[in-house]
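== Folding task for one protein ==

=== Format: two labelled lines per protein ===

==== Paired sequence and structure tokens ====
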Amino acid sequence: MDSPRSAILITYPNTESIEEATALADAAGYRVGKIVTQKNITRSRFGIGFGKALEVREMVKISTPDVIIFDESLKPSQQYNIASLCRIEVMDRERLILNIFERRAQTNESAIQVKLAELRYETVRIKDKVRLAKLGEQPGFFGLGKYDADVYSLDLRKRISYLKKKLEKEKRKRDMHRVHRAKSRLPTVSIAGYTSAGKTTLFNRLTGETKRTGQGMFTTLSTYTRSFKVNRNMKLLISDTIGFINKLPPYMIDAFRSTLSEMTYSDLTLLVIDGSDPLNVIDKKIQSSTKVMIDLLIPLTRVLYLFNKSDLIDDHDSFVKTLTKSKAFDPLTCHFMLISSKTGYNIERLENFLWIRFDLQS
């Protein structure tokens, strides 16, 4: 495995932003050496203020990192300006996530989806990138100077069209599998949630599978479906899906729609949340996950909230009381449960819940 490249990270001055951005960088193969924070990192010229940009330039001279990572979406002009100032490659949050997707893609379908998302990322940046490339080569803009915007745009559209056709074939395969499963009349369950919440560990716990898990972001990019039994006699189908994340651009969700659509057709979605997080972080992650589910037209009445990693929660009663203060979750109207995919805490209770729910529907 290649050694990680070094990076300077520019993010917001709060713990959850720093931790998430650092985890994203790590998953993409970057080791964050320096962290620069500012309340507003979407300013017009450099993303950050000019004074802060000069500070970053000095850091680059001293620490000689391989890249600057911005924990926000940058316009090509902003990316170009700070790359020109610091004479180093600059990567924004969207490009960073795409890099992770590229590293994690293990199936033909997920590889196509990642490539489609990458081309859509480039599509909205064509004119500015071509114009800026002609001003002088900078890190991240190499090789574009020979293109006209229209020529480059046409090339991207052709490649996007080709990938859509390939993805449509994969979708038809998935639809055929779904029809086949529907004929079995088995209840279907999807596992969803914020990335790194422990979805795959729960999937393995319920099914006896040994799918790869890890602390890295987006370990799962493809949907895996397996059967398992609850109370020894009721057979269900359960699917592990791609994780959600804050500020995931619509074009990325659209590119992975065929994979995420498993949740749309499920009888129940298990929304896994890291219960060891502070309440404000839990709220943020629930809101991000809920937004994606609403975009996919998934009724929230078909969602069971699972607060995972209960082994890291000191007082369960206090935790449940804390949930009453949540802005994103109403414990009085929503079904929820504390579990631990790692230790097995409340997994039997979860199986009983599934048995009762689907036994009543049969």
In short: The longest strand covers residues 30-37. DSSP finds 13 helices and ten strands in the chain. Confidence is low (pLDDT under 50) at residues 141-145. Residues 149-183 form the longest helix (35 residues).
